[in-house]
Amino acid sequence: MRRQGILLPISAVPSPYGIGTFGAKSYEFVDFLERAGQKLWQILPLGPTGYGDSPYQSFSTFAGNPYYIDLEQLIKIGYLTKKECDVCDFGGDENYVDYGKMYESRFRILRKAYERAAAKGLEETGDYLRFVGENAFWLEDYAQYMAVKNSFGGVCFLEWDEDIRLRKKEALEKYRKSLDREIRFYRFQQYIFAAQWRALKDYANHKGIKIVGDIPIYVALDSADTWAGPELFKLDAKGLPTGVAGCPPDAFSKTGQLWGNPLYNWKYHKKTGYEWWLKRIARCYEWYDVLRIDHFRGFDEYWFVPYGDETAQNGHWEKGPGIHLFEAVEKKLGEREVIAEDLGFLTQSVRELVKETGYPGMKVLQFAFDAWSDSEYLPHRYKKNCVVYTGTHDNDTMLGMIKTMPLKDKRFAKEYLHARTDRELAAACVRAVLASVANTAIVPMQDYLELGSEGRINTPSTLGNNWKWRMDKDALTDELADKIFRLTKLYGRL
Description:
The chain is an alpha/beta fold. The protein has helices spanning 24-35, 71-76, 82-86, 99-119, 126-134, 136-151, 162-165, 169-178, 180-206, 224-228, 266-271, 275-287, 323-333, 348-357, 398-404, 407-417, 422-435, 445-448, 478-490; strands at 3-7, 40-42, 210-215, 243-247, 257-262, 290-293, 301-306, 316-319, 337-340, 361-364, 386-389, 440-444.
């Protein structure tokens, strides 16, 4: 079945109070998708953002980002007042997220909401107790991790006192008692997050729109996952990584990308029947309908960078779990919709793994225009079982890329797509992915809005200016919905 969707992070929805949320504007975006004939809404990982504000460096692979909790809904149920929210400084720029101010203000206002909810007896209700019980396997470690982390000034657990860093029984009990109120606060955040997201997802599903979510292959070093499950990772006797994740030098970076995540102890995971992974992926399918598995090639081979190196240049390849993990997933969870992010340098063994799983891989049109080469990313080379994008969250917008691409590549692209100007070429690229034989086509919202580099979400291997872009509050016009609908119908994707 041919279908089509739009990529827009939750953070980029033009909600009030500094960042996109699960509030009214997200429901309006779902309505826009329906009017535009779309069947998919792709978002980025929903976890709480950590280092560099990246959703790929989260304090927990199971928890949700409290920034996405809609304050207006908390006002309606009496946990907050509008005045309390209005006086908070969440940043004054409607088009970009100010994560510094968000961090300073969001938790203060959510703490007020928690105190009122607790006073009204929320923690004694059946629904709340059921949520806490059903999610105890990750929620208790996460809530305690964040509470202890805050008590140590926000530093990574590697810098905590040794007794709690190594999870000595007496230390765990001591901090549970002394930080009980803070632990309860973090449980409350997750309860509200889950309720609001479930309602928004149900609304989208009711309108025939599936949510495409993203699972980062790795967890963050600074995370409840690493602290609570050291046996899952390649750590030494002191709890320090022996190696960390990254990728070798490529078109994005001459020195490679040093991600810094702990690497998995795949022998342990295999011995347990991949139990932790099955829980992790099952959790994802509570949130999403379609799962995009980030850095899929890492399950075949992954880049091992010695811990302490300042770049990824001196890394080496090690073998991953291969098909065995995905066989275990299918056996436990049944057939589910998956997208394999198979970008980057692909060896034959990676290609065989993707083929063996049957998952559709990804095609990115921005990678196609290497002048006069027969790139596998050119539309005439696609097969039906793939998902095609103009660009991803790691790319510039289509127009931004075109304005900076080498002249010889631009000449080739314009001839290939019969375009004269840069803007014509950007529009032709959108049409090309929709017209292709790929079963699924997904276009970032910025490319429909014809934005330049000001709409870029992330530049890999950089810090300080990523994950900030937000859509203009007046962007979702009827004219734009009609335009996208016509294109969707024209290329048989309704």
